[in-house]
Amino acid sequence: MRSPLERWIERWNAYWFPETTTLYLSITRIVMVAAQLFWFSPKLERHLNLLEKNSEFINPQLLISGIAAIVSRETLFTPSTFTILYWITAVAGAAALVGLVTRTSLFVFSLGTWIFVAHAYSYGDRHHPEAVFAIVLLALSLAPAGESLSLDALLRRRGLPFIDRVKASVKVDTAMWPLKLAHV
Fold first, then answer.
1. First CA to last CA distance, the chain
2. pTM of the full predicted structure?
3. Burial track 18-39 (b if 16+ CB lie within 10 A, e otherwise)
C-alpha cells in the first residue's frame, strides 16, 4: 500500500509530467517566439531614448539591480551595448523560431527579452503585462521545445525520408509542464 505522500507525488507527476508528444510544445515555441519577434518586440529607439535621457534608474527592477551590481551602469547601460544586446536577442529569436540550437537560442532570447522588459520598467511605469509571457519563454527554453518542428529535429533525423523527418514527434514526460505552467 502506498503512503499518502507517494499518492500525492504520483498525482503531481501525472498532472505536470504526463508522457505526450512534443508537437504542441513546438507549436507553442513557434507561436510565442514569432509573437515576441514580430508583434511584442522591444523598441530599440525607446530603450536608447531612456538611456540617453536618464542618468539614473527611477525604480530599478530586480534583474536590472542584479546586473548593475555585477556590471557597472557605464559599461552595460549604454546605447552601443544595448544595440548589440538588441541584435543578439533578435538573432537568438530567429534561431529559436526555426529551431536551430533551440534550447540555447530560446534561453538567450528569453534572457534578452527579460532584460529589455526590466529595463523599460526601471524608469517608473510598471504594469508588467509581459511578465507571464517572459516566464513562459524561459520555461520553453528548459523544455524539449526543439524536438519537433525544428531544424534541430530535422538534422537529428537525417537518415529518414523527408516526410518522416517532418512528421516525427517524440514522446516525453517533460513536454507539457511549460504549457501547464502558463495555464496556471
1. 31
2. 0.88
3. eebbbbebbebbbebbeebbee
- pLDDT tens string 125-182: 666 678 888 889 999 999 999 998 899 988 888 876 666 655 556 789 999 999 999 8
Average pLDDT of the residues of the chain: 89
DSSP, collapsed to helix, strand or coil, labels residue 172 as: strand
How far is Cα 118 from Cα 45, in angstroms, rounded to an integer? Answer: 16
Residue 62 falls in which region: left (phi positive, over 0), alpha (psi -120 to 50) or beta: alpha
DSSP 81: H
Q: Is 99 exposed, middle or buried (0-12, 13-18, 19+ CB in 10 A)?
A: buried
Percent residues over pLDDT 90 in the chain = 61
Grid cell, residue 166, equals 517532418
For the record, the C-alpha cell of 111 comes out as 534572457
